[in-house]
From TrEMBL:
Recorded superkingdom: Eukaryota
Species: Lachancea fermentati
Listed name of the protein: LAFE_0E11408g1_1
Record's subcellular location: Cell membrane
Subunit (UniProt): Heterodimer of SLM1-SLM2. Binds phosphatidylinositol 4,5-bisphosphate, which is required for function. Interacts with the TORC2 subunits AVO2, BIT61 and TOR2. Interacts with the calcineurin catalytic subunits CNA1 and CNA2.
Length: 661
């Protein structure tokens, strides 16, 4: 209560002091142009006025800027800076009326602070282009964002610099308050109080230390309307200004300075929060990029080996490893990208508040001084209006981000795996021709084990499951260049088998017959036909041509869209028999050794069968039969034999009455 009475007494003293100066001001009104016209409200409306409550920032809304109260009077309008929620006393009302009467006669012929053209002038931002050559965002061998940057430390230093700016402004305003009663003598003192240690002031101060030069780079150069222009404007203003008023001293001391001090204290907390985000920028992008380069090299070597020589690694498996590594790299890169966006978004909003507070404080200060004489407009307001006041609150931030290599451009999009392009990405040799479950007969136990098989142009792989994302290492891989197929079960038999013969390779590695069993005759024939076509030639161009026709690929190696799928002969294929071409699976693994020379069992896997030179002989109680071409063949049960020449013969069955199946 005593504090309120003291404030009321102070306002009464101010009123009496202003009434004593009324006669002196009326004597100067003939040659003075006022800066408090009706256009003044339009000039300060976009920026807003700062409100205080007993020198304390409101906690509900941080840094409010639209708390200007307007008091109507018979002579015009007076904008008064009021505290939000503060009681309006009779003394305050009387004081406002007295102030209105004080400037009433001047307002009748005053000129505006800013003309219509100045008010409507579009805000400009100096844009700087980032140095460096633009890289292809589709390439898996580049990372478009900095991986070893330290943005949190840089941003903390930036806001520490803003605290220094605010501190410099506070020093200046404090000195302004102390010299308002001694205008002439104290103008030189105020000129020396304009102390921005890392800014250039009309070539009077050049940053010398490395720290000052580094801080100066945070802001636009002198003459671009940035905060760095303030020292020059204020120094020039104080060299020509010779008067002030007690109202200016009271308003600066009770409203503007406490608000900036609160803002400066809040920045300490924000700087600590920014430093805690340093762990978000620890990444392994460089490591993942090196692994991607290695996997891409392995894939390209596998493609070249499959196309021009003996393939040691299957391009299909190498592509699975490469695609998984690329996905891992992009995921790590996007995590880092999100950390940059989060840090820069928070920093942008924080700097917007800081710049708006500085703009508001300087606007109030300029308005108070502008009411005394037209000289204020000529020396101070006009320059601030065309410079710092005319900028967006984030114009310094935008230019800082654009020229600092520690940050990324705000409009830089994130990359997606689907946009990645690399050499031989759609090569037909990297597709799978067929995939599905088959049963393979054991070498020794004569039992069958079920597995998921993938047929590629160069290999037949056995996997434990059909999931290529988790199960990407094959249990067994057979090179089709060392295999042939010669026989399969007849239609209508109880079991649907076909035999894949691994050729003998050297003295130690002998051949072996692999017996596979399908769930249906059609499925068995599809496997048999595709394997036979791929084992009949070792020419990669022929294999690529077969895969292109088999999977209905276009000239770029991408699947065509067809309503009715067709087979290699151009005939429609039932829906259940179609196989969608895939280049699936992404994983980081080493291609296993191909199992095409390890089996030493040379006997035919089907019981009581064996090879004799160019034909397969079945040892059975049945007598041998001769086909029409004179070649002797035998059969046992549901097995038919195909000679080395490729002719298939169906022996007569005594039960069917000699009907050819």
């Amino acid at each position: 209560m005593s504090k309120h009475n003291t404030m009321t007494s102070n306002m009464s003293d101010v009123l009496s002091q202003q009434q004593q100066n009324l006669q002196h001001l009326q004597a100067l009104e003939q040659g003075t142009k006022s800066l408090t016209s009706n256009d003044q409200q339009t000039f300060y409306q976009p920026v807003g006025s700062v409100a205080f409550d007993n020198h304390t920032l409101p906690q509900q809304t941080p840094y409010p800027v639209d708390n200007v109260s307007t008091t109507e009077g018979p002579g015009g309008t007076l904008n008064s800076v009021l505290s939000p929620g503060a009681p309006t006393t009779t003394t305050t009302t009387a004081n406002n009326k007295a102030l209105e009467n004080l400037f009433q006669h001047q307002k009748s012929h005053a000129s505006s602070l800013t003309s219509a053209s100045t008010t409507n002038r579009p805000r400009l931002s100096q844009q700087f282009t980032r140095a460096g050559k633009q890289q292809d965002p589709r390439s898996p061998l580049v990372v478009l964002i900095p991986t070893s940057a330290n943005p949190t430390e840089v941003l903390a230093q930036r806001f520490a610099a803003w605290r220094a700016v605010i501190r410099s402004i506070l020093v200046y305003l404090t000195e302004t308050v102390s010299i308002q009663d001694e205008i002439v003598r104290q103008q030189l003192r105020l000129a020396h109080a304009v102390n921005f240690p890392f800014f250039v002031t009309e070539n009077q101060h050049q940053p010398t230390s490395a720290e000052e030069k580094a801080i100066q780079k945070f802001f636009l150069p002198l003459g671009n309307g940035s905060v760095q222009d303030l020292p020059s404007i204020l120094t020039l203003f104080h060299s020509q200004m010779a008067g002030s008023a007690s109202r200016t001293s009271k308003e600066l001391a009770n409203e503007v300075i406490p608000r900036l001090e609160d803002l400066r204290r809040d920045l300490v907390v924000k700087i600590k929060e920014i430093k805690t985000l340093q762990s978000d920028f620890k990444n392994s992008c460089a490591k993942e990029l090196q692994q991607t380069k290695q996997d891409l090299k392995i894939f390209q070597e596998a493609i070249e080996g499959a196309r021009y020589g003996s393939a040691k690694n299957d391009p299909y498996l190498a592509k699975i490893a490469l695609d998984k590594q690329i996905r891992k790299q992009i995921t790590e890169e996007n995590f880092l990208h999100e950390a940059f966006n989060n840090l820069q978004g928070s920093g942008k909003e924080l700097e917007k508040v800081v710049v708006m507070e500085i703009q508001n404080a300087l606007t109030i200060y300029a308005r108070l001084l502008g009411q005394n004489a037209q000289l204020v407009f000529d020396v101070l307001i006009s320059k601030l209006d065309t410079g710092f006041f005319n900028k967006e609150p984030i114009f310094e931030w935008d230019n800082f981000i654009a020229k600092d290599p520690n940050f990324i451009e705000p409009d830089l999009p994130m990359r997606h795996v689907r946009d990645i392009v690399y050499k031989n990405q759609t090569d037909p040799l990297a597709y799978e021709v067929r995939a599905g479950f088959l049963e393979r007969r054991s070498k020794f136990l004569k039992s069958y084990s079920k597995g998921f098989y993938v047929l590629t142009p160069s290999f037949l792989h056995e996997f434990k499951t059909a999931d290529r994302k988790k199960d990407f290492v094959p249990v067994m891989s057979l090179s089709l260049n060392d295999c042939t197929v010669a026989e399969h079960s007849k239609k209508g038999s109880s079991e649907h088998k076909f035999i894949l013969h691994a050729k003998q390779n050297g003295i130690i590695h002998r051949g072996h017959n692999w017996v596979f069993r399908a769930d249906s005759y059609d499925s068995m024939m599809n496997w048999f036909s595709d394997i036979k076509k791929l084992t009949s030639t070792s020419n990669p161009n022929e294999k690529a041509k077969f895969v292109t026709l088999r999977l209905n690929l276009d000239a770029d190696g991408r699947p065509k869209k067809r309503d009715v799928p067709i087979n290699v002969n151009g005939a429609p294929v039932p829906q259940q028999l179609t196989s969608t071409p895939r280049q699936t699976g992404q994983s980081n693994f080493t291609t296993p050794n191909l199992d095409n020379q390890t089996n030493t069992n040379t006997s035919v896997s089907i019981p009581e069968t064996e090879y004799d030179n160019n034909m397969l002989r079945i040892n059975s109680p049945n007598s041998p039969r001769t086909s029409r071409d004179g070649v002797q063949h035998t059969y046992d049960g549901n097995i038919y034999i195909e000679t080395a020449s490729g002719n298939m013969h169906y022996p007569r069955n005594s039960i069917s009455g000699g009907k050819r199946n």
